[in-house]
Design goal:
single chain; Rossmann fold; 2 domains; 9-stranded mixed β-sheet; 6-stranded parallel β-sheet; binds nicotinamide-adenine-dinucleotide; nucleotide binding; Gfo/Idh/MocA family oxidoreductase; Gfo/Idh/MocA-like_OxRdtase_N; NAD(P)-bd_dom_sf
Length: about 350
């Protein structure tokens, strides 16, 4: 197999997770990095022993010695860079969310179709070992038909600020940033049913709560307390064609007693809780059973999941296997997220199969 020569665009916080995983894969040569911030790009290149350093992604894409790219930039540049990369003949791993708008998502899909290149959406949670295990149970029919799911990620104080808090660059707040992970995971486990309607609410009540003292939380490098144009929290009810439904609630700021995560799917023969650890619930001989699969890490293992995500991408670049996170799944999610934002704005249910559909 040919070594896959990788370029990485966007050397911020998440880039390390990509680079560490690439560095650990013997089929990869890390070839170049790019960031608008030259010093950051140089620091990253030095840390990983990478020769190519760019501040304009077009220069990186013009390098014929690069086969594939990881896109780890702000959400508002995902579409532009993905399309340019595909058209330059590169395979693409694009961080979540795929992009900001449905039009952008469709343009990316068109570029994938026209170029025949790989585009993998960065749905890292799909690659987690506990999800791979659960998927086997679901695919074997052990949970029966899944008809309900719950996707909840509550941060009481956790607006990262910087571009995350700038709607123009991010596309929104917790819904598009962390909601995308958990909605996608439930939807994937449910067998990707077609959504027919969404009813959503977004709230801007608490702001980024930068007034809070004596309580630390993750802040982007360019945190600016005066900048915050995104929602504090969002909730939604999503209905699917097969009658199944998904309840979502996510927040950056909320008067909650503690941070919490709940991701769960429920079927006719059994259910599964995914956070904080995989646990399967079923019934046998008139008895309810809670089954705890014995895994090295029964919860979400961040480092290991990135390793699996990157290894999957490298395999695809070498022509091995089927894309677990294809562009269509990114398009479907952007449609869904945008419909939730629209529902909240217009204060009504939005149909995805009828007159509201784009
Ligand atoms: N999969 C996950 O769990 C996960 C976690 C965090 C972030 N992300 C995603 O990764 C992406 C980056 O997030 P982050 O936390 O690393 O942000 P960050 O602000 O730490 O880093 C982003 C970097 O991209 C650079 N950049 C922006 N536009 C650019 C352009 N046009 N060309 C070159 N460089 C550019 C910035 O200068 C910055 O260094 C986002 O899309 C985010 O949603 C995913």
């Amino acid at each position: 197999m040919e070594i896959v020569r990788i370029g990485l665009i966007g050397c911020g916080s998440i880039s390390d997770s990509h680079l560490q995983a690439y560095a650990a894969n013997p089929q990869v040569k890390l070839t170049a990095v790019c960031d608008l911030n030259e010093e950051r790009a140089r620091r990253t290149a030095k840390q990983y022993g990478i020769d190519g350093v760019h501040t304009d992604y077009r220069q990186l894409l013009a390098d014929p010695n690069i086969d594939a790219v990881s896109i780890c930039t702000w959400n508002n540049s995902h579409a532009e860079i993905s399309i340019a990369a595909l058209r330059a003949g590169k395979n693409v791993l694009c961080e979540k969310p795929l992009c900001k708008t449905v039009d952008e998502a469709l343009a990316i899909r068109q570029a994938v179709e026209e170029t025949g290149r790989v585009l993998q959406v960065g749905y890292v949670r799909r690659h987690a070992a506990n999800i791979e295990v659960l998927k086997r149970f679901i695919d074997a029919g052990d949970l029966g038909e899944l008809y309900y799911a719950k996707a909840s990620l509550i941060r009481r104080l956790g607006n990262p600020g910087g571009w995350f808090a700038d709607e123009e660059r991010s596309g929104g707040g917790p819904l598009i940033d962390i909601g995308v992970h958990v909605i996608d995971l439930c939807w994937y486990l449910m067998g990707k049913p077609a959504p027919v309607s969404v009813s959503g609410n977004t709230y801007r009540k608490l702001g980024n709560r930068s007034n809070i003292e004596n309580f630390s939380y993750y802040q982007a490098a360019d945190f600016d307390p005066s900048l915050n144009t995104v929602e504090d929290m969002a909730n939604a009810l999503i209905r699917f064609e097969n009658g199944a439904s998904l309840m979502v609630d996510v927040s950056f700021s909320l008067h909650a007693r503690k941070d919490s995560a709940q991701i769960a799917v429920f079927g006719e023969r059994g259910g599964a809780e995914i956070e904080p650890a995989l646990s399967i619930v079923t019934e046998q001989h008139n008895t309810i059973l809670n089954i705890d699969p014995q895994l090295t890490t029964p919860g979400f293992d961040f480092v290991d999941s990135f390793k699996r995500e990157i290894n999957h991408f490298v395999d695809l670049c070498q022509g091995k296997g089927d894309n677990l996170c294809p562009v269509d799944d990114g398009v479907a999610m952007i449609r869904l997220l945008n419909a939730i934002y629209r529902s909240a704005e217009e204060g009504r249910e939005i149909r995805l199969d009828g007159e509201d559909a784009q």
